Batch of 3 targets.
Target 1
Amino acid sequence: MTTYKKVTLRKGKEESLRRFHPWVFSGAIDHIDDTIEEGDVVAVYAADGTLIGNGHFQVGSITVRMLTWGDSPVDADFYAQRLEAAAKLRMALGLMRSDNNAFRLVHGEGDFLPGLVIDVYGSTAVLQAHSPGMHFDRFKVAEALTKLPQLGVNNVYYKSETTLPYKAALEAENGYIVGKYDTDIAMENGLRFHVDWLRGQKTGFFVDQRENRSLLERYSSGRRVLNMFCYTGGFSFYALRGGAEVVHSVDSSAKAVNLTNDNVALNFPDDPRHRAFATDAFKYLAEMQHGQYDLIILDPPAFAKHKSALKNALIGYRKLNGKAFEKIAPGGILFTFSCSQAVTREQFRLAVFSAAAQSRRKVRILHQLSQPADHPINIYHPEGEYLKGLVLYVE
């Protein structure tokens, strides 16, 4: 039997764990061994002394993230098995192809590895820890990654400076823990793009919009497209391949606009249909002409990273979509998204509905979108659903 330091729950507080929910909240805990430190693997016991499983300990509201159930150890073999299972799923999804080498390999709780995110871009995996325990286990994870022959990963870049809890004072530094810089060009559905994992947001690219970008491509032929909050321009170069008449990309970050231009040039060099602008989104929407675009993409950063910001976030979504409804051409199509985990699907839909009603235009829902299959949702952890989207036809 593996011996870990103990966390004992209050009476009756083990019920959610019996249903395989992977979080232990601080309020559920009766006793913690004195010698437990941040990031330790701990054994979680019910009040009657029954072992429930093992997980990573940290100070905070979510005190333990469960990794195993029963007496299964959290060791190198555990990570090898979990990463093997994650890779098998991505192979079954058909994501490892000659025309596609960018995908999410590990999606935290969705792959039964809470606190860990791994995105693969060709021969480089970008590893992101969201808990002290995963930070301390990063070398075990990296070693297991490079031993999976189907992945072909030779380089592992660790990028967790901004994702680890600051109170833990871990002083994590971004950098290669296996290999070195190889190339920053990856491929998605036959389209190439630069990935800025060194300085870019998240792991450098938003692979969670892959399927939604493909859907946009099918609607783009002959349309005048506006890609708001373009970041690296993913929706833009899909629209160009789909036969758009014109594509304009907008982001408040000049660096993002430069990266968008670089990505468009990789696939459509010197294409006169595309222009990019570094300016505020609301300002651009307010100043553009009525009917200038008949396909608009609204994919803003998270308006509500915590529930405390929920009210303002919903106001923001309503205003943003309201301006799009006001300006889009008759017969236009609006792709609109929320990546705020604190905003439910119903709340986002209500905010968009309110904006549509205020515009007094006829609006129909064509598609209701979500995150792709390489961002799976653990059925026991519905909180893992974060990406919401609607495709709307506006008369």
Note: The chain has three domains: 5-69, 76-189, 206-394.
Target 2
Amino acid sequence: MHPQDATSSRGLPGTLSAGLAIATATVLSILFVALDDGASGGTPLAILQSIIKLRNMKELVHGVAIASVLAYALGYATLATRLDLRRPLVLAGLTTYLIGCVAMIGATILDGFISSDVAAQFVSASPEGVKLGYNLIVFVGVALTDLAKLGWVLQALASIAWAWTLLEKRGFARAIGTIGLLSGGLVLAAVFSSGANMDMTAILSILIAQAVWNLAAASLLIRRKDFDAKAKDAGAGANSAVRFA
């Protein structure tokens, strides 16, 4: 097979599937976040009972959230590969993003599984035990918030790193880079301006900014034109090297 044809036939495998993975995960995340509900009640016992009632739904919602994070990791690892992992900024972005994914999975496990297990463990205890269980739930809430904030910050920094690389291109890719810069900046601003407690406005701002960037990045991968052009250039270079060897 001709060297150029070999490179082109290999193309950039996984680019389309990676884009679809990011887009699908984004849509599912939006749908299932809307199904999530928080505990209610005026006493520690009522709050523990409320958490238990929501247990099945929270496990489903957060199970989908974990699957979505894994899909994002696959998609953005592909994007980073296409942007060239030999570039320090691109590699740093991927490393940062994957650590952010670990933090987000930790927050998801705390919120969707551990909090329910704690509630079930203490709901039938003595009044002192119920109070202890409630205090543990409060601690879990603080821990998951901090993990989520860490994950959001790391993922925002990664999007900014990749967006900066995309700004070197032209046309559609450059536009996606601009979206990445704006999205990452908005997420960082929302996290650092929220203080110890995040209100719903800050959380919604982060989720919307992330959704816009995710869909933009997905469209870039699905479109593939910039990456395919890069592959053809690499193939042409390889062909020239063979001719002049």
Note: The two ends are 17 Å apart (CA to CA).
Target 3
Amino acid sequence: MAGKMVQFPSNGHTTDGYLATPASRKGPGVVVIQEWWGLVGHIKSVCDRFAAAGFSALAPDMYHGKTASEPDGAGKLFMALNIEQAEKDLRGAVKYLAGHSSTAKLGAVGFCMGGQLALFAGCTNPSIGAVVNFYGVHPNVKPDYSKLSGPVLGLFGEKDGFVSPEVARGVEAAIKKAGKQVEIKIYPGRDHAFFNDENKAAYDKADADDAWMRTTDFFKQHLK
């Protein structure tokens, strides 16, 4: 079931990504967007989990080959992200994934930086029919929620020092003000990156499993 690295067109260039597809070859398509570490093993394993659950999942390499293993390096890559190029990469990823999807509408899910980019993708690409945002944060990414073409599920940790519950509720309020559908879950006692099973300090299996179930159920409901 393990996926493979692929290349797809991105506005005259090519971008790499990790594609995992189900045994049936095509399932509802989900774009999986990385944390600030880059396209690392954890994100690839999330794609594999989606494939095992019946989805086609593609994680575009937003850093174009670069990854980080410690916070300083990750922070530099995070702040150096070219938002204009990121939009082109996401658009290319959506177009490529559509060819592997059993549904016309695709999902977008992201973690940390990727959560904010998933919202951004949902606001810039009408093919995205549902967005799941895991504790999304990026100061330079400004989604226009009035352009969302589907509902949003937000999953946050109560003890998150990057995205506090107040910030999460602010995102919820802004999406509602734009007249769009949103549901927010804040996990008591959880820190940023509680879903990442490679981040031993933050990971919580019970809440990560709950968040996974909510995510897959949400996509099954909205990607028809």
Note: The helical segments are 41-52, 71-79, 83-98, 113-124, 165-177, 205-222.
